[in-house]
Design goal:
The protein is an all-alpha fold. It is built from 8 helices and no strands. Helix 2 (about 30-40) runs antiparallel to helix 5 (about 70-90).
């Protein structure tokens, strides 16, 4: 994964929802053909993502014991959110969906490093399964997800002041 600081202030400084929206909106998104190809292979990609995550030696540390079904559900939700973003270019819906998912699954015991691992695994699978030039079209947004994974949990839980996160804690 390329080094990317788009919207990222470092591992100790979480971005607010508005900052996440602004930085995500600055990313170049894939073209129609690449987006359609991802959407067409969404189920297969989500299954591969789940399988790769399931094979991790640290899985129980990341999601807690006996939560593979929840992780499978989240992998599919995450891939559907990506496909929707790539097809509709609706950044606000994607960011809000991501924040909602992170908060919902964190309350079920998923730990912060899960989202970093998911972002990296998504990128690795894209490298393996997506030919150029489509891979280059996905890379900026995948870099953004990876660079900002640390912000998702804090922001989704309402830790960042001035965030206006729907359903976030005051």
């Amino acid at each position: 994964m390329r080094a990317n600081t788009l919207g990222h202030r470092g591992s100790n400084a979480a971005l607010s929802r508005e900052e996440l929206l602004e930085s995500a909106g600055a990313c170049d998104l894939p073209g129609e053909a690449a987006a359609a190809a991802f959407s067409d292979g969404l189920e297969s990609f989500a299954d591969a993502l789940y399988g790769r995550m399931q094979d991790r030696a640290d899985l129980e540390t990341l999601i807690g014991p006996g939560k593979q079904d929840l992780m499978q559900e989240y992998c599919l939700h995450f891939c559907r959110s990506l496909a929707l973003l790539f097809e509709t270019v609706h950044v606000k819906a994607f960011v809000d969906s991501l924040l909602w998912g992170v908060r919902a699954y964190h309350t079920r015991g998923f730990e912060s490093p899960f989202w970093v691992a998911l972002a990296l695994t998504t990128y690795e699978l894209m490298q393996e399964r997506t030919p150029e030039p489509a891979l280059s079209e996905f890379t900026p947004f995948l870099d953004w997800i990876y660079a900002n994974a640390g912000s998702f949990l804090d922001t989704s839980n309402g830790v960042v002041s001035g965030r206006g996160v729907p359903g976030g804690r005051p």
